[in-house]
């Protein structure tokens, strides 16, 4: 499985953002890890800044290099702005959508729900986290999995605000992927143009 299994809070401190969810470690130590983490004078090269944005995107969405590169090539082949296409494809992943719908508190939990066959897409069980949804697809928690504590707790604690490219029915634990989101509606703080520049070298 293509996923990062190392220390999460260390990466969150590196990017100075809670990319894996709420982070008490980041609140206590709002600076980078390591002996140079507190240094105020860290002049970064252009390549370093571009690489940082790519790494942030990979860790945020739970992907490794080969899978991320393949998705970038898919975004490049599609008509439109490559960076925007990339971010839209990332948001259309099944594990990310399960997370956005509130069925899981984190993308890691969402990935686990998918791989353990608790999620149904258009009436068919799909256990591939990277599965790309299409407009109109209906994502549902499998009937025999609707009593899972992890799902009910996540739904109960999910914020009221929703994403305008998704439609959710809490009672039936189902949601509809209405369309690919507009880049300005995606809450992640990722500069996709820098990722495009990095891969274009």
C-alpha end-to-end distance: 28 Å
Outline type: globular
What summary fits the major beta sheet? 5 strands, antiparallel
| Total beta strand runs | 5
Kindly provide the name of the CATH class of the largest domain.
Mainly Alpha
Q: What structural class is derived from the secondary structure elements?
A: alpha+beta
Q: Cα-atom Rg, whole angstroms?
A: 18 Å
Strand order of the largest sheet: 2-1-3-5-4
**Name of the CATH superfamily of the largest domain:** Ribosomal protein S4/S9, N-terminal domain
Order of helices and strands: HHHHHHHEEEHEEH
Helix share bin: 40-55%
CATH topology of the largest domain, by name, is: Ribosomal Protein S4 Delta 41, Chain A, domain 1
The tally of helices reads 9
Number of domains: 2
Question: How much of the sequence is in beta strands?
Answer: 5-15%
Question: Could you list the spans in which at least 5 consecutive residues all have pLDDT below 50?
Answer: none
- Please tell me the overall pLDDT: 86
Per CATH, which architecture of the largest domain?
Answer: Orthogonal Bundle
Task: Describe what this molecule looks like in 3D.
The chain is α+β, with helices and mostly antiparallel strands. It folds into two domains: 8-89 and 189-199, Ribosomal protein S4/S9, N-terminal domain (Ribosomal Protein S4 Delta 41, Chain A, domain 1), CATH 1.10.1050.10; 94-179, RNA-binding S4 domain (Structural Genomics Hypothetical 15.5 Kd Protein In mrcA-pckA Intergenic Region, Chain A). Helices cover 42% and strands 8% of the residues. A five-stranded antiparallel β-sheet has the order 2-1-3-5-4. Helix 4 (65-77) crosses helix 5, helix 5 (82-91) crosses helix 9 (192-199) and helix 6 packs across helix 7 (107-115). The chain is globular and about 50 Å long.
């Amino acid at each position: 499985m293509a996923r990062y299994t190392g220390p999460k809070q260390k990466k969150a401190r590196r990017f100075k953002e809670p990319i894996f969810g709420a982070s008490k470690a980041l609140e206590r130590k709002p600076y980078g890890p390591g002996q140079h983490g507190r240094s105020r004078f860290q002049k970064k090269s252009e390549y370093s800044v571009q690489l940082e944005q790519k790494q942030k995107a990979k860790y945020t969405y739970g992907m490794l290099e080969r899978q991320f590169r393949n998705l970038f090539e898919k975004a490049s082949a599609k008509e439109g702005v490559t960076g925007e296409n990339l971010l839209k494809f990332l948001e259309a992943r099944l594990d990310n959508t399960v997370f956005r719908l509130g069925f899981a508190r984190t993308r890691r939990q969402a990935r686990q729900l998918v791989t353990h066959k608790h999620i149904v897409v258009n009436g068919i069980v799909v256990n591939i986290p990277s599965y790309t949804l299409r407009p109109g697809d209906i994502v549902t928690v499998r009937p025999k999995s609707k009593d899972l504590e992890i799902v009910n707790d996540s739904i109960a604690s999910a914020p009221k605000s929703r994403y305008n490219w998704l439609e959710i029915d809490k009672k039936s634990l189902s949601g509809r992927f209405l369309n690919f989101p507009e880049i300005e509606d995606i809450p992640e703080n990722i500069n996709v143009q820098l990722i495009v520049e990095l891969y274009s070298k």
